Amino acid sequence: HSGTSYMHKPPGLYYQYIPARLIFGFTYLYYVYLARLPGIIGDFLIAIGLFIIVRRKLGEEWLANLAALTYLAAPAPFMFFGYVGRVDALPIAFLLFAANNMHRARFSLYFGLSALHKQFAVFAGPWFLFRPGMGKKVVLAALFTLTLMAPYLLDDPLLVLERMVSPQLTKTVYGMTWTHNLTRLGVTDLSSVASAITVAYVIVLFCVSPFLSGDPHRVLAWIYVSFVLFARNMAEHYLLWPAPFLIAYAFIGKRAFPLLIFGVLQMSGFMLNDVNNMLPKSMRYDFALAQGIILALYVAIEFPQIFRPRESWQRATEALRRLKTKASETTP
Question: Whole-angstrom Cα distance, residue 312 to residue 288?
Answer without folding.
Answer: 35
